[in-house]
User: Which sequence fits this backbone?
């Protein structure tokens, strides 16, 4: 049976191994250190095992060896035994193979985990994982494990043994059931993941739209301030009126329900009016960043089939001549008149957001009205209420703007438009103070920069959500220490799932050993799954692909049905018709029901046979007080061999390479140590404020830096290389 790996869009996805299921442990003081564990079979399990042993006449540990093989197949996406054959038939066949192997003196057919029928001997002591069964006349049978300390900790060993025992019990309890029905997740864990930590999305009311929900707010408080920017303000009544006039103009120009309308505007009050006006016309807005090259702008408008574009006189030169242009700052040719309510509902597309594609071609993501409502209506992760101000500082082409704009406007609050094109700490502080901003969203990169400059710039806020990429624990600690009155949250979610899928309210006191800030729990009408390559639920604590379901999912990728089918898949644990988005993010459930981000599948590199997650290396580097920011990338040397390069920003002075290496060597395995360093004035960021990867691309402005290849047993002698574009 062919099992599809986690990211079918990749041409040659790496084969998973047992190491990939567990979060790597820190270096042990003794390289050969091992973790031991055992678990006794329960009374009922021991009774069923005894009955089976007497009736089947098979090797006493065959059910447990079988359980381990089945777990590995489902957890790793490997070749599985025929799911239609009965458990009884498979156990008999497997036992026969094992007896033949024992007679011939062959080891068990598992290179990473040896299954032994007695205590491990000296010859097998170096295996990463040993598993065996012990039986005595006076004691209940016990499962044992001995694992390399670099692979598993004591809790993970016990969890692994419990999973093997549970699957073995199911094999023995239901010998006539097909293997496809045998469970590989204990019932209590399954209940946690499907019921306790996730709530099924509520039935969708397709009558609800962004336009209708805004109309309710405008009717309830027409004089309340909806938008503010500098000295300018606009009330709900004025926004309702002006957006209606724009909708009429668009409809007069031929825009109909289901059309896409280009939006070539910078962040402004006018841009918000335009967005609402386009929605009222029944169309979807396609925000186009004004700093994009003309070729990219033309591609986006063409691919979206946006025949009509809304812009201003100052930006009209960016709009291709082939597009019909409505200038927002010029009066229309028609008399003001009521707009005609279009035939749209919650499943209608509200906007098309473009993100980078793995092939280098941008991909358009279609977000529906119901996805926006799921994000901002009836939520509990942010205090959105009448009169409350929310900062709008994100570019229009970045989906954080969805929360910043529609969060306040569909809750009776005020959307405060930040004036700086590229936000700074001081500029944010002025806007927050002037407009009494309560809630803001900042990318992790911008948050780090503000905290490094002066955390007091954020003092006026009451709630700050930050995210977009993994948070820096040292920066979070400094912010919490400097801003005791600020509620700080980690917000996670890809564009395909409409800004946020999970939120974690960060406690004021963080554990000293904290390695990363959790992603948190799913927000309203959202489900989170951590799945194996074969789309099976993984036990709590094991690493798998994070998949997201619920009302926030995009319709799909515009005009890319194959990619849509690959990334938006049926939810095997949901109701008929429900889907999951495969994020490509690696994550695991924590025992408290929160999700921990581990890294990206495409952030994994393999160097000299070692699978390396660059995020783990970055976390270790940032734990040094002298490092302000860092990023790690795999770069080929002159011979084409990949090596890890650490891109570093110093807090005050550059740390010596020997000192940094010593710091990392105490925290990371040798294979994870960077081979080179590059000091930068600052890390490059994208227009959306995220870290600009990959670093192979030359920065926009020249940076003088030095890269030093350090000595390594497998590498050539130390050399110095000057490179301004690395």
Assistant:
């Amino acid at each position: 049976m062919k099992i599809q790996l986690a990211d079918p869009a990749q041409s040659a996805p790496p084969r998973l191994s047992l190491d990939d299921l567990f979060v790597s442990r820190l270096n042990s003081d003794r390289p050969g250190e091992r973790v031991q564990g055992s678990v006794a079979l329960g009374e009922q399990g021991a009774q069923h095992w005894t009955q089976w042993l007497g009736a089947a006449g098979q090797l006493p540990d065959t059910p447990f060896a079988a359980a381990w093989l089945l777990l590995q197949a489902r957890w790793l996406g490997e070749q599985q035994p025929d799911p239609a054959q009965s458990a009884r038939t498979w156990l008999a066949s497997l036992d026969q193979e094992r007896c033949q192997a024992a007679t011939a003196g062959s080891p068990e057919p598992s290179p990473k985990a040896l299954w032994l029928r007695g205590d491990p001997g000296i010859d097998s002591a170096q295996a990463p994982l040993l598993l065996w069964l012990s039986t005595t006349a006076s004691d209940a049978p016990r499962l044992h494990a001995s694992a390399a300390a670099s692979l598993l900790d004591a809790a993970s060993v016990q969890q692994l043994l419990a999973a093997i025992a549970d699957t073995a019990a199911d094999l023995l309890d239901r010998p006539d059931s097909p293997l496809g029905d045998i469970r590989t997740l204990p019932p209590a864990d399954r209940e946690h993941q499907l019921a306790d930590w996730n709530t099924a999305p509520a039935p969708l009311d397709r009558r609800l739209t962004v336009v209708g929900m805004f109309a309710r707010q405008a009717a309830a408080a027409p004089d309340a301030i909806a938008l503010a920017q500098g000295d300018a303000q606009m009330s709900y009544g004025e926004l309702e009126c002006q957006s209606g006039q724009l909708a009429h103009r668009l409809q007069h120009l031929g825009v109909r329900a289901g059309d896409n309308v280009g939006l070539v505007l910078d962040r402004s009050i006018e841009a918000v009016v335009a967005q609402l006006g386009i929605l009222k016309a029944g169309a979807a807005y396609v925000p186009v960043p004004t700093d994009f090259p003309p070729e990219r702008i033309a591609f986006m408008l063409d691919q979206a089939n946006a025949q009509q574009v809304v812009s201003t006189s100052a930006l009209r030169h960016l709009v291709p001549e082939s597009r019909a242009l409505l200038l927002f700052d010029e009066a229309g040719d028609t008399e003001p008149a009521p707009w005609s309510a279009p035939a749209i509902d919650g499943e209608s597309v509200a906007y098309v957001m473009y993100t980078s594609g793995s092939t280098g071609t941008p991909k358009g993501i279609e977000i529906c009205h119901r996805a926006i409502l799921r994000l901002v209506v009836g939520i509990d992760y942010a205090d959105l209420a009448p009169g409350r101000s929310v900062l709008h500082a994100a570019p229009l082409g970045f989906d954080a703007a969805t929360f910043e704009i529609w969060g306040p406007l569909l809750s009776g609050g005020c959307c405060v438009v930040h004036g700086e094109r590229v936000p700074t700490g001081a500029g944010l502080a002025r806007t927050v103070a002037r407009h009494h901003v309560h809630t803001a969203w900042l990318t992790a990169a911008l948050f780090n920069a503000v905290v490094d400059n002066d955390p007091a710039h954020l003092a006026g806020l009451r709630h700050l959500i930050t995210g977009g990429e993994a948070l820096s624990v040292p920066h979070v600690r400094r912010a919490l220490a400097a801003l005791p009155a600020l509620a700080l949250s980690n917000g996670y979610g890809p564009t395909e799932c409409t800004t946020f899928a999970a939120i974690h309210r960060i406690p004021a006191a963080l554990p000293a050993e904290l390695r990363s800030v959790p992603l948190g729990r799913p927000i309203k009408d959202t489900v989170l799954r951590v799945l194996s390559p074969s789309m099976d639920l993984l036990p709590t604590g094991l690493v798998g692909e994070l998949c997201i379901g619920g009302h926030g999912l995009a319709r799909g990728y515009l005009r890319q049905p194959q990619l849509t089918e690959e990334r938006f898949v049926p939810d095997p644990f949901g109701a008929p018709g429900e889907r999951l988005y495969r994020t490509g993010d690696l994550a695991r459930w924590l025992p408290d029901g929160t999700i921990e981000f581990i890294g990206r599948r495409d952030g994994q590199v393999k160097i000299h046979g070692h699978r390396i997650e660059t995020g783990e290396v970055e976390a270790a580097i940032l734990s040094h007080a002298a490092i302000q920011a860092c990023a790690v990338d795999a770069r080929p040397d002159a011979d084409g061999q990949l090596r890890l390069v650490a891109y570093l920003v110093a807090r005050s002075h550059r740390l010596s390479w020997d000192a940094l290496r010593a710091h990392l060597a105490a925290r990371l395995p040798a294979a994870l140590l960077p081979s080179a360093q590059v000091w930068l004035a600052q890390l490059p960021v994208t227009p959306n404020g995220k870290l600009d990867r990959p670093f192979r691309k030359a920065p926009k402005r020249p940076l003088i830096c030095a890269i030093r290849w350090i000595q390594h047993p497998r590498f050539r002698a130390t050399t110095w290389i000057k490179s301004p574009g690395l």
Notes: Confidence is low (pLDDT under 50) at residues 1-13, 696-726. The first helix runs from residue 43 to 56. The CA atoms of residues 263 and 287 lie 5 Å apart.
